[in-house]
Amino acid sequence: DGGITQSPKYLFRKEGQNVTLSCEQNLNHDAMYWYRQDPGQGLRLIYYSQIVNDFQKGDIAEGYSVSREKKESFPLTVTSAQKNPTAFYLCASSVGTSGEQFFGPGTRLTVL
Amino acid sequence: AQKITQTQPGMFVQEKEAVTLDCTYDTSDQSYGLFWYKQPSSGEMIFLIYQGSYDEQNATEGRYSLNFQKARKSANLVISASQLGDSAMYFCANFGNEKLTFGTGTRLTIIP
After folding, report:
1. Mean pLDDT along residues B87-93
2. Beta carbons of B44 and A40 less than 8 Å apart
3. Average pLDDT over chain A, rounded to whole?
4. Is A58:A49 a contact under the CB 8 Å cutoff?
5. Which residue of A has its CA nearest to B95?
6. CA distance B101 to B47
7. Which residues contact A48 (CB under 8 A, 6 or more apart)?
8. In chain A, which residues touch B (CB < 8 A)?
9. Distance to chain B for A54, nearest Cα, Å
10. Residues of A with CB below 8 A from B104's CB?
11. What is the C-alpha separation between B21 and B35, in angstroms, rounded?
12. Which of A95-99, B79-83, B105-109 has the lowest mean pLDDT?
């Protein structure tokens, strides 16, 4: 089955530690995205990538970093510079740069 | 800048009734796309329906239809014959400048 996987589902980290969230897709999609969702809020775009080895900042990129070394993978690192990292993180992909995006199940990150 | 407004934080609807979820948008783009996504309690986002700014007909997908009023900048989602499985968060989004901008969502609860 084609789809997007994110692991783990729940992640706990101590304040000041960097943490990397995994996102893998086997849909052969060119574009991939990372979103953050806070309670009572819509999704906000962190980073996106249209092709391998290239990515662009979204609306809230500060304190985050990404890489796109393979078409299938788009990991997100939440650095210690991110002041409020506790949130629900969603990864998505699309055929081209498109609003019709396919989402993974999300990772809920809690920083203690 | 893109902006999406969803003014209904929550709605309760009797099973089998129709429901309309409101969405207004603000954009300076001539060409844009409006999307609706469903987010069940499990967290993943599910694409429901799309309306292009130049589409003359309102979009329909099964029980979902989009009441698009361009002059009013509104793109309301209509769900006909609601089912218990329709209980979820619903997000309206606008695609412009290579990214989706989401509203804050409406929590829909279907009452048996």
Report:
1. 98
2. no
3. 94
4. no
5. A99
6. 14
7. A31, A32, A33, A34, A55, A56, A58, A97, B98, B99
8. 33, 40-45, 48, 50, 56, 58-59, 88, 90, 92, 97-106, 108
9. 14
10. 40-42
11. 13
12. A95-99
In the numeric block, which tokens belong to residue B53?
A: 């700014």
Question: Is residue B9 within 8 Å of residue B68, measured between CB atoms?
Answer: no
Residue that has been written with the tokens 């809020």 in this structure: A41
Distance of CA A29 to the CA centre of its chain: 15
Q: DSSP 3-state helix, strand, coil percentages of chain B (rounded to 5)?
A: 5, 55, 45
How much is the pLDDT for B48?
97
**What is the least distance, in Å, from the CA of B44 to any CA of chain A?**
5
- B64 is written with which tokens? 């979902």
Cβ neighbors of B112 (< 8 A, separation 6 or more) are: B15, B84
pLDDT band at A1, cuts 50/70/90? low
